[in-house]
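Why this split exists: single-chain examples teach little about how molecules sit against one another. For that reason, every record in the complexes split bundles all components of an assembly together and asks for one structure covering all of them. Below is a record exactly as it appears in the raw files.
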Amino acid sequence: MATKSGQLPQATAHLLDLNKMTEDGTMEVMRLTEIVQDNRARAAKELAAIVSTLEAVDCRTLAARLGKATNELAQDEKHLMDIMTALSFQDLVAQRVKKLVTIIEEVQCKLVELVVVFGLKEESATPETQGKAGEMLRQLEAQNPRRSSRTWRMNCCPNSDSNSVLLSVRSHGFVCFIRLDEASLMNQLD
Amino acid sequence: MPADPNMKILVVDDMSTMRRIVKNIMKQLGFANVEEAENGQDALDKLKAESFGFVISDWNMPVMTGIDLLRAIRADDKLKAIPVLMVTAEAQKENLVEAIKAGVSNYIVKPFTAEVLQEKMSKIFK
């Protein structure tokens, strides 16, 4: 079984982007809704004044037609308020996304702890481990000499980003790919 | 006693979208004097600085939660009479019991409609 755990940091970023996009979209719909609400309120006030004037000069047919238009505007007021309240979905989505981000961060942290506890075994010196992240990874190894390469075997794999290292962790027939970025390593090197 | 349309209302929520929704509903219900706070501590500071007639607060917030804000309001002699409506996405019984014990005036579960909010306010200000 192989999982692309190296994409974990990107997953968190995607979720946070999702939160921002839904918030921005919701805010824009609200802004437009509020403009329509304000215009509607002004139009309804105008119509009510016209109806009163027409009734006073006994133009009952025209007053009735305007009265009908006023009622339709009143129905729209209810629809606009329903649009506003329906947008509360963004709050619920954001709460779920926050929970997911917390879970992903915890999983990422546990994976880094695994690296720290079991140590690393580099099969070959690759250019990828010569970057800043590679240097920090070697510091982690130096801080944690306890290793168990019998049950866990970790290899540094090629990665295009010099500020991160891609590890393959093999244990009990399972292979897991972990991308450790600079931030994750910095947390462990406090 | 019916709610005074001129009373100052404080909407407390860490989500700007929810604050705007509640503020909009309040405006449509005839309450235009609405202030916002983004967490319990921010709300408490505003409550101590200005006079408010009603607080609508979310439950889950960073810095200070809604339930802690409620307890702080009820523990303060100058603020304890302010009606507090708690908004929560978690309809768990234990949360509501906790809020009732802390002296909440009423509660509302997200997502809610304008009608439900109006009904809850009517019960508080009857």
